[in-house]
Each structure stands twice: as structure tokens, then as C-alpha cells.
Amino acid sequence: MGTQFTYLVTGANRGIGQAFVEQLLSTPTARVFATARNPEASLDLKRLAEASEGCCHVLQLDISKPDSVKAAAQELAKLVPHGLDCLINNAAILGKFTHALDQDLSDFAHVLQTNVIGTYSVTRALMPLLRKGTGKRIVNISSDAGCLQQNAGFIHQDVPNDAGMAIDYRCSKAALNMMTTCLANQLAQEGFTVLSLHPGFVHSDMGRAAGLGASRSAPGSGPTLSAEDSVQAMLQVLQQVTPKDSGRYIKYNGEAMPW
Ligand SMILES: NC(=O)c1ccc[n+]([C@@H]2O[C@H](COP(=O)([O-])OP(=O)(O)OC[C@H]3O[C@@H](n4cnc5c(N)ncnc54)[C@H](OP(=O)(O)O)[C@@H]3O)[C@@H](O)[C@H]2O)c1
What we know:
GO terms for molecular function: oxidoreductase activity. Keywords: NADP, Oxidoreductase. InterPro entries: Fungal_SecMetab_SDRs, NAD(P)-bd_dom_sf, SDR_fam. It holds the Pfam family adh_short. By secondary structure, this protein is an alpha/beta fold. The chain has one domain: NAD(P)-binding Rossmann-like Domain (Rossmann fold). It has helices at 15-25, 43-50, 66-79, 105-132, 148-152, 167-187, 205-215, 227-240, and strands at 5-9, 30-36, 56-60, 86-89, 137-141, 193-198, 202-203, 225-226, 249-251. Helix 1 (15-25) crosses helix 8, helix 3 runs parallel beside helix 4 and helix 4 (105-132) packs parallel to helix 6 (167-187). The protein starts with a strand and ends in an 8-residue tail after the last strand. 42% of the residues are buried. The model has no long low-confidence stretch (mean pLDDT 96). Bound molecules: NADP nicotinamide-adenine-dinucleotide phosphate. NADP nicotinamide-adenine-dinucleotide phosphate binds next to helix 1, helix 4 and helix 7.
């Protein structure tokens, strides 16, 4: 038990989150807490946990519901009293991918509530366990959709692009990036590594929906990367980073992202 490295992955029942669980479980030292809004319906995840010989546990967690966050944190504290090494904040929603001026306000609030406040509340609830752990890692799965420099770069370029679409999702990921730097500042003296990782444009339910939305403005847009390849590359990045990298925004292949 002493040499195990413990991970918690949110939104682990499909897409990139599930690929994280699968690949972490191929590491002999990993013990993975895979969370899902509806564990009973998460059949692939249940199968992974059953085959894991005790290395994978499925927990219920809806990051947008305070009671669910509190219950998951309490359950985890019983399972890992010596602490959690790495939190992978992966769960998020895309929203409806509308034009910047057509955004429904309650949809906007829902996306921010989930992707920003939800992620923050999970991180805060798990801080006592993360502080006890030796890994001291918080990984926020961000997106290039939250990259201000990239988005602003399209303004005066006369090329088809989707930079005015999905204002809710873009704002949520830009805010998540700010959260990364706030937490990295706050936790630097405690040896934490807090990162924003951009996974690339990935074949998942979200990637396919974003591809369809983007194609309306920029024909031909679509996912280019499998979840497996994205996660394999992100895990390589995670193997290499140290607390000196805390507060960085990094692409899946290790390249630095501009803010
Ligand atoms: N795919 C891409 O091209 C791409 C690009 C850049 C960034 N990302 C980011 O990568 C991460 C994973 O995305 P993905 O492509 O794997 O998306 P996905 O296939 O749509 O999966 C999203 C996951 O988040 C979970 N989730 C949504 N709302 C939740 C909530 N309130 N509480 C708990 N879990 C919730 C979903 O659970 P349910 O099954 O219960 O809905 C699902 O497990 C996200 O942060 C996304 O923003 C993806």
C-alpha cells in the first residue's frame, strides 16, 4: 500500500476520463478512484473496476451538486485516510455551441456552474486529502477553447473559424485556467503541482459535438486524436512535471500553451 499512488478522476464513465482510468490501471502502482454521476449506468467503468483486483473503485460524484461533492469526499476519506496523490478534474460540459450573442443566460450559468464552480468545489472538498498525500498534484483538464491569445488571434484574420462560438464553454475554460494559476500561487509553498492541460481535439461525445458545431463556421473542423492517444501523451507530460511547472498551461504533447 505504501508505494501506491492514488488518483481521483472526475467524469470517468466515458471519453477522456475513462481513458485516464484505463491507462492509469495499467500502471502497477496506481490506485484509481473513478467517479461518475451515475455509477450504476456506467457499465464500462464497472467492468474496469471488477477486473482491477481492488485497484479501481467507482464513486458517485456530480460535481455540480454540493451534497454529492460532500458525500464523495467523506467516502474517499474513509478509503484513503493517508491521503490522495493526484486529482484529475476532467468532468465538464460543452453547452450548446451557440453564437456569442445568442447565448441563453441560464445555459451560460449552468456551464459556468459545472465547469468552474463544480471543479472548484471538488478541489476544495478534497484539499485535506490532497494535503495528506505525497503526490500533491491537481490536474485541470482545460481546452484551447479557453486560450485568450489563440481566440483573439482570429479577430483580424479573414479565415473561417469558430472563435465566436461557444462563449459559455470558452469563458468556463478561461476561468478554469485562472483557477489553475490562483491555486498554484496559493499552494506553491506546500509543494503542489497545479496544471491546466489541453487534451487536443479528441474523438469523444464532446469532441464530436464540438466538431459539428465548429463545422458550421469552419468547414472540415473535427476531432483529430483518439482519447487513448491524448491520455497517453498527457500521462507522459505528468511523468515529467515537477512543482517548478506548477501554474503552467500545457498541450497534451508537452508544448507550452499561450494564455
Ligand atoms: N473532446 C475534446 O475534443 C476536448 C477538447 C478540449 C478539452 N476537453 C475537455 O476534456 C474533458 C473531458 O471531455 P470529453 O471529451 O471526455 O467529454 P465527454 O465525452 O462529453 O465526457 C464528459 C464527462 O464529464 C462528465 N460530466 C459532465 N457533467 C458532470 C457533472 N456535473 N458531474 C460529474 N461529471 C460530469 C460526463 O458524465 P455523464 O456521462 O454523466 O454526462 C462525462 O463522464 C472535459 O473537461 C473537456 O472540456 C475535451
